[in-house]
Write a sequence for this structure.
């Protein structure tokens, strides 16, 4: 599933012939990203290190009402750029836009737990039972509530809305994209009122890489050499702070329970899933049929009539759920039932969410069966969710 970490931080480097000097660097910077100034600083340092002139072109990576799709990004990169600097890649499930390669990670950032200064919590497990935690619509931390059932989600449409709720005291904590938090606290001069804790849950940490295609492998090599020099003399860390840290993120060990197991069969013996393992039937045809209508009424405007994605991500195919992400039915159902629809999260009846989930599963190649899926079963399901749709 392509859940956005936040609006992608994109810096696109285009290279033109530079005669006897190093090639000039043309930079396209996502003005909507909290990393924008940091991206520019790193790019300029790389240009200085390689004795290249730099020119910056700003664009809006947040997109229009239909969002900023990876296909749009690919088209932009191929038409104008040699490198994409500042692209965040999930450290636990690396995935790149189709046709692109990545340099060695030169920095890392991710989601952080934002707490009032008086809080002594050092993780989600340290929060008091019943704590409401602000989380942004369609971001990865929505998954974390499955593993931390004693806290509850307070879903907001933007990072700023979640931070405002924490500032008002209507929530006890917030899980927000780290660069956004750093920018907010710096601008508001609130470093004494709040503190942050790095989240270590799977899919919380992201590597920063430069993307390139095969035609620009030499440019990527020169970029890596320049970054290595900046890191050796300590300049890279200073350039990235406080938005990110130099080097790659520490990866979370893969869970051992990634099995094809039905929530109705808790006594089943453990056996590793493989490509040939067929998922169990979790829903009925009637539920999926009803879910198709309710999806059209409540979800298609953002996710597309055929689940292809619009302002919201695609909900089937290779960009929805791949094996490396290690998502389960319960993970995705939690997001569906807590985040949807965007205008009024968690406002539909429980049966509607179950039927919409049944439709999503069928569209991704899962079989119907004779037993109905219930809300609790969907939320607790550890059946891996891997899309088999094209």
């Amino acid at each position: 599933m392509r859940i956005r970490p936040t609006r992608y931080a994109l810096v696109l480097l285009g290279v033109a012939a530079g005669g006897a000097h190093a090639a000039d660097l043309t930079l396209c910077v996502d003005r909507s990203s909290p990393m924008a100034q940091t991206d520019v600083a790193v790019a300029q340092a790389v240009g200085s290190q390689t004795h290249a002139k730099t020119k910056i072109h700003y664009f809006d990576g947040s997109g229009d009402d239909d969002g900023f799709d990876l296909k749009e990004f690919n088209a932009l990169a191929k038409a104008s750029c040699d490198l994409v600097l500042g692209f965040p890649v999930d450290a636990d499930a690396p995935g790149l836009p189709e046709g692109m390669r990545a340099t060695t990670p030169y920095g890392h950032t991710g989601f952080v737990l934002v707490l009032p200064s008086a809080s002594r919590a050092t993780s989600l497990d340290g929060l008091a039972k019943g704590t409401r935690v602000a989380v942004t619509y369609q971001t990865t931390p929505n998954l974390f509530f499955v593993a931390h059932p004693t806290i509850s989600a307070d879903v907001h449409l933007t990072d700023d809305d979640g931070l405002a709720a924490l500032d008002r005291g209507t929530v006890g904590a917030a899980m927000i994209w780290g660069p956004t938090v750093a920018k907010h606290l710096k601008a508001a001069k609130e470093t004494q009122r709040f503190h942050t804790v790095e989240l270590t849950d799977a899919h919380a940490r992201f590597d920063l890489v430069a993307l390139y295609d095969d035609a620009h492998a030499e440019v990527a090599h020169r970029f890596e050499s320049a970054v290595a020099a900046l890191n050796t003399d300590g300049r890279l860390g200073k350039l990235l702070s406080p938005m990110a840290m130099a080097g790659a993120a520490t990866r979370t060990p893969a869970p051992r329970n990634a099995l094809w197991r039905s929530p109705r069969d808790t006594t089943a013996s453990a056996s590793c899933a493989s490509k040939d393992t067929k998922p169990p039937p979790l829903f009925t045809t009637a539920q999926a049929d009803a879910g198709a209508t309710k999806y059209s009424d409540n979800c298609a405007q953002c996710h597309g009539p055929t689940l292809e994605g619009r302002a919201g991500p695609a909900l089937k195919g290779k960009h929805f759920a791949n094996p490396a992400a290690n998502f389960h039915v319960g993970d995705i159902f939690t997001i569906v039932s807590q985040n949807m629809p965007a205008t009024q999260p968690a406002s539909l009846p429980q049966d509607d969410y179950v039927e919409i989930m049944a439709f999503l599963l069928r569209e991704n190649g899962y079989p119907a069966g004779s037993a109905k899926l219930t809300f609790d079963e969907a939320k607790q399901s550890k059946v891996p969710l891997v899309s088999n749709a094209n």
Notes: Confidence is low (pLDDT under 50) at residues 7-11, 14-21, 255-275. The longest strand covers residues 107-116.
